[in-house]
Amino acid sequence: MSKKTKIVSARTESEEESQDQARSLPEKWQQEIVDMGSATMKNSHGTIHCLTIVGQVEGHMVLSPNTKTTKYEHVMPLLAAIEESEEIDGLLILLNTVGGDVEAGLGIAELIAGMSKPTVSLVLGGSHSIGTPLAVSAKVSMAVPSASMTIHPVRMNGTMIAAPQTYHYFERIQERIVKFVAKNSRISEKKFLELMLKTGEMAADVGSVLYGEEAVELGLIDHVGGLADALECLYRQIEERKKEKKAAK
């Protein structure tokens, strides 16, 4: 085989590898969605990771196989990997959750709030209970007009000790949630607590239900918008971060 023939063969093999990678990329995304409910996507704006938080946020107890869950032991290391990755530029969080384990949800929310990379959350359907801190944990929070958010006091299922210390413990947990939400949104602690303890709105519980535009008016969510708006906001953050890094050099 001549040198010219070898070069042509090498180029052909290289082109075939590129085509194979291009064909396998969507399959890789599909597998990520199946395994983790997330996917990494790349375009001219940058590389973003899309994470979904759906169903119940599962904590230390394993829920029924028939229950749709988001497992905190999957999400926490994933968030750490995204923060440390040199390839991923930003994180998009899609929320449709009924709530769940308070400490697991708050732990995930704290991790998101502590990330240096651009983050945008988008509430679709609902982000109830502990889903509220998750919704406000991103640098920019958004909700579609039909999205709903249920805000209510901390509660527990099962057996508990009926003693003053138990109720004090509930108050302390509630205080942690109120402070986190107020710190990561434009709503005050006083107003959020009022919504949490409101009576007369929910038939079988104490609390409030907010919808997209109402949540924005109260300062809980930053903007009303859809998927395209959330992605545009994330790309703007990515571009600003790139400019800051360039200026620092």
Strand percentage lies at 15-25%
Mean pLDDT: 83
Profile the largest sheet. Answer: 7 strands, mixed
- Radius of gyration, taken over Cα atoms and rounded to an integer in Å: 22 Å
CATH class category:
Alpha Beta
Reported by name, the CATH topology is 2-enoyl-CoA Hydratase, Chain A, domain 1
Instruction: Please tell me what the overall shape is.
Output: globular
Describe this structure in words.
The structure is a single chain. The protein is of the alpha/beta class. The chain has one domain: 2-enoyl-CoA Hydratase, Chain A, domain 1 (Alpha-Beta Complex). It contains 8 helices and 9 strands. The strands form 2 sheets. Strands 1, 2, 3, 4, 5, 6 and 9 form a 7-stranded mixed beta sheet that branches. A two-stranded antiparallel sheet has the order 7-8. Helix 3 (102-113) links the parallel strand 4 (90-100) and strand 5. Helix 2 runs parallel beside helix 3 (102-113). It is globular and about 60 Å long. The model is unreliable at 2-15 and 21-26 (pLDDT under 50).
